[in-house]
Each structure stands twice: as structure tokens, then as C-alpha cells.
Design a protein that fits this description.
Helices cover about 70% and strands about 0% of the residues. It contains 13 helices and no strands. Helix 9 (about 135-140) crosses helix 12 (about 200-230). Pathway: Cofactor biosynthesis; pyrroloquinoline quinone biosynthesis.
């Protein structure tokens, strides 16, 4: 097939990628949302996911540096503000560090990115490089995992509240905020991709970019599962379950 699919069919193709490949189906997330993760596993997830969160505004800054169109820059720059926040407060990164503190981690330790699994770094850095180097259409298409994010955020909020003592409104502020931010972002990104993927070749490239992004997200969870669930082989440099814990919890759990 060499002709471009119509807009509706191409949209359906993108949605099918999420149905088949989005990381809400990963065994680690099933464990997390079902209350079957130990606190060590929860903390390992918070530490490693922070690395991804911290690189999102860097990825978006790299994207903006390539945009000649000021309208596109104006529409995209709110993503950086959403994650970095203002000079003194706000932003998804700060909200994620509040989650880190709620689960018993020192936010400064988490922000240092010490203990991040090597494969997490590799996957996230590959995503930043992809957005920096690939055509703008593919860079935008790679962001469309946001199409599927509201569902996973809703499930995560419900699951964490039900199963974990640390979960409260403050701890889960990141996910609640993304329920408002992600639909706005994806509305723009989806329209951009549907408008600009006007040949079969461009549609294939956009679909491949979205597939690549689902691989980035899935591989991060593969790393966590391998290191902290089964068979539990933590690679050199990975968090050992003790470093970076807060206060009395650190000494108590280190002694167990």
C-alpha cells in the first residue's frame, strides 16, 4: 500500500499502537497498581522514573531549538513550564520529588540521579536524542503516548490510594495535574501529526516514532522488573534499596 490512509484511519492506526504496546500492560505496573509491590520496588520505580521526568523538559527544549515556526514554539513551550515550573514553585519535577519524599526517599538523593539503572539512562537518553535528531513530525509523533496517559494516571491514583499508606493528595499531585495537562498537549500534538503526515511514507514514519516511544517506556519497566522483582539482579550502579532513605526509616531498613 503506497497511498496515505485517510485521517480517521490513520488516527485509528495510532490508537492501535497504544492498545497493543502501551506500558500500562507491563507486569510491573500491574503489580504496582494492584498493591503487590514492596516499598523497595515502589522506591526503585520512583527513583528511575524521576530520570525520565527530569529529561522531558530537556527533550522539549531540544525540540524547540529546531523550530523555525514561532507559532509551533508558542504551542510547545508550555510543556517545559509544566515540568520545570516557575523559579520558586510548581512543576511536575517538584511534584515528583514530593512523591519521592512521601515514599521515604531523600528528594536530594533522587534528584541527583545516583542509583538510576544503566538501562533506564540508556532508554531515556535515546528518547532525548531521537527528538533532537529526527524530523519534527516524528519528534511530535513520539509524544503521542500522551493519548494513552490519562487512563494509566487514573488507574495509578486509584491503585496507590487503595493499597499504599504513603498515598495521599499531596503525594499523588503529579498524576492529578497530568490529568489536566496531558489532554491539552495531546490535542495539539495529534492535530499536528494528522495534518502533516499527508503521505504514506510520513504516516509510516510517525507510527514508527510512536512505536519507538512505547518501547522506551516499556524498556524502563523491563529494567525495574529484572533488577527488583525477578530474578532480582541489580546491576552495578543501581540503587541497592538502602541509600537515600529518609531519617529513622533509613537506619531501620538498613538494619533489616
Amino acid at each position: 500500500m503506497t497511498t496515505a490512509a485517510d485521517r480517521r484511519a490513520f488516527h485509528a492506526r495510532l490508537l492501535d499502537i497504544g492498545k497493543e504496546r502501551y506500558h500500562d500492560k507491563h507486569p510491573f505496573h500491574v503489580m504496582l497498581h494492584g498493591g503487590r509491590c514492596t516499598m523497595t520496588q515502589v522506591r526503585a520505580w520512583v527513583i528511575n522514573r524521576y530520570y525520565y521526568q527530569s529529561r522531558i523538559p530537556m527533550k522539549d527544549a531540544a525540540f524547540l531549538s529546531r523550530c523555525d515556526d514561532p507559532d509551533l514554539r508558542r504551542s510547545w513551550r508550555s510543556r517545559i513550564e509544566d515540568h520545570d515550573g516557575g523559579i520558586d514553585e510548581g512543576g511536575g519535577i517538584r511534584r515528583w520529588l514530593r512523591l519521592a519524599e512521601a515514599v521515604g526517599l531523600d528528594p536530594d538523593y533522587v534528584a541527583s540521579t545516583r542509583g538510576v539503572l544503566p538501562s533506564t539512562r540508556f532508554a531515556v537518553d535515546a528518547y532525548v536524542s531521537f527528538v533532537r535528531q529526527q524530523p519534527l513530525l516524528e519528534a511530535v509523533a513520539s509524544s503521542l503516548t500522551e493519548l494513552f496517559a490519562p487512563k494509566i494516571h487514573s488507574e495509578r491514583i486509584a491503585g496507590l490510594l487503595e493499597h499504599y499508606a504513603f498515598a495521599d493528595h499531596e503525594a499523588l499531585a503529579y498524576f492529578r495535574q497530568r490529568l489536566a495537562e496531558a489532554p491539552r498537549d495531546v490535542e495539539f500534538g495529534l492535530a499536528y501529526v494528522l495534518d502533516h503526515a499527508d503521505t504514506r511514507e510520513k504516516q509510516d514514519a510517525a507510527a514508527a516514532a510512536l512505536t519507538f516511544k512505547t518501547d522506551v517506556l516499556w524498556s524502563q519497566l523491563d529494567s525495574l522488573y529484572s533488577a527488583y522483582v525477578a530474578p532480582g539482579r541489580i546491576p552495578p550502579g543501581g540503587w541497592d534499596g538502602r541509600e537515600g532513605l529518609l531519617g529513622e526509616r533509613a537506619s531501620t531498613e538498613a538494619a533489616e
